[in-house]
Amino acid sequence: MNRWNEIPYDVLEALCKETATLPSSSPSTNDSRKSLFALSLVDSRTREACYPWLFHKVTFNKRWSEGPSWEAFDERMKHIIKNPALYRAVKSFELNVWVSDIKRDYLPPTTYGLLPTFLASPPQLHTLAFRSQPPFVPSFCSAFNDVAKVQGPLLTIEKLIISPSCAFLIDHCPNILEFEDSSLLRDKLVEFTTLTKPLSTSCHRLRAFSTTVVIGSSTLQDILKAIPLLEELKLSRSLSPRRRMWRYRSERRGNGQGIMKLLPDFACFPHLHKLVLPDASSLDIGFNPPWISHADTSNPGLVERIARQGQEASERVAKGVQEVCPSVNELWVGHICFKRDEKGVMVYSDPDNLINC
To answer: Which superkingdom heads the taxonomic lineage of this protein's source (predicted)?
Structure first.
C-alpha cells in the first residue's frame, strides 16, 4: 500500500473535494466542514489541498460592537496574504459593518489601507459583498482610490453585493456579471440613480440585477436605461410601501392591478429571460392574506385556503407575463416557479422539481 504522502496530488484534491461535499446530518452541524478540517491536520500537503474548500469564503462581521476586533481582522488578512496557497483559495469575500458606537469602534488607518490591498490580488476572487455604515464610507472610498492608482480595478470580481451607500465600489469592479443592492439595518436611503448611473458607464458585462427598492415604472425605466442587455431581474421589495403598513391595509387596499400595470415595462427588456418577484401578497393584485400566527397553523383549513389563493394569484401573474413579456421564460413569484414550455405557456413547476428551476 502506498504511503499517504505518495498519493498523487490530483487524487488528494479529489478526496478533499469529496469530503467537503459530504451531506451533513443537519444544516447546523456542518459535518463535512468538521471532517475536512480534521483531514487538513494530517500534514502540510493535505492542508494545502483542503484550502480551496476550507477558505473559499472569507467573512468579517462587525455588528453592534460584537465580533473580532479590527486588529484581529487585520492580522487575519496579513496571514492570508503571506500564505500564497491560502490567498489563491479565496473566491468570496464578505464584509458587514454596523456598530452601535462609531467613536468607540472606529476603523484604524491600518484597516482602511490593508483591506483594498487584500482585495486587489486574489486571483480567484469572484464574489464581493461589501456592506458598511455611511460614516465609514468616505475613508473606504479614499483608500480604494489610492490602491486603484497603483494596482488598477478589481478585474476578477464577477458578482458585487453592496449596501447602497457603498456605490463607489461599482467603478472599481468593471467586469461584474451580477449586481445586488442589499441594505443594512437603518441604512440611509440613496437616490436609485446613484447605483444605476455607474452601472451604466462602468459595467458593460452586467446581465443580472437584484434590488430591494420599491419598484415602479420610473424605476424600471432607470434599470432599462442603465442595463439594456439585462437577462435576469430580481425584485425583493413589496410593490408599494403600504404593504408594510398593516394597520391601514383595509382602508388603502389596491385595485388588484398592481404588478399587472408594470408588465409592459418588463416587456421593454428585450433580453430578459428570468424574472423574480416577491410573493403574491406583495404585488398589489388583490391577494391580501391575514397574518398567520403560530396558533393559526393548527387550523389546516385556513392554511390550505391561503396557500390555494396564493397559488391562484401567482398563476394570474404568470398568465400576464406569458401574454405581455415574450422574452421571459422563467418566472418566480415568491417560492413558486413557472417556466415557459415549448408552446409558450408559463407552466407551474412542481415543488419537488424546484431545484431544476
So the answer is: Eukaryota
